[in-house]
């Protein structure tokens, strides 16, 4: 997947943005991740730690509004 910077807009327009295309992209990403980090002979904690880091980042993004409000409050 070697895309030059000048060809990037046309490459993005050629992608399939239908629900089946998006589902297929997620499935390909999942299978690529699974085969590279989980389904190996000598596994390590790197695959699980990536999932954990993604979960922490996602939950932080969901609760950012409340955390931002608490940060701006003054406690006496």
Count every helix, treating DSSP H or I runs of 4 or more residues as helices. 4
Count every beta strand, where a strand is a DSSP E run of 2 or more residues.
Answer: 0
The mean pLDDT is: 88
Order of SSEs? HHHH
Taking the sheet with the most strands, its summary is: none
Give the class from helix and strand content and strand pairing: mainly alpha
The end-to-end span amounts to: 56 Å
What fraction, in percent, of the residue positions are helical? 55-70%
Overall radius of gyration: 19 Å
Shape: extended
Uncertain stretches of 5 or more adjacent residues: none
Q: What share of the residues does DSSP label as strand, in percent?
A: under 5%
User: What is the total number of structural domains?
Assistant: 1
Subcellular location: Mitochondrion inner membrane
Family: Belongs to the ATPase F chain family.
Organism: Carlito syrichta (Philippine tarsier)
InterPro entries: F1F0-ATPsyn_F_prd (IPR019344)
Write a compact overview of the structure shown.
The chain is mainly α. Helices cover about 70% and strands about 0% of the residues. It has one domain.
Secondary-structure map:
Blueprint: H1 8-13, H2 19-38, H3 46-62, H4 64-72
Q: Key features?
A:
mainly alpha; 4 helices; 76 residues; 0% strand
Structure explained in plain terms:
By secondary structure, this protein is an all-alpha fold. The protein has one domain (5-72). It is built from four helices and no strands. It is extended. The termini are far apart. The relative contact order is 0.06.
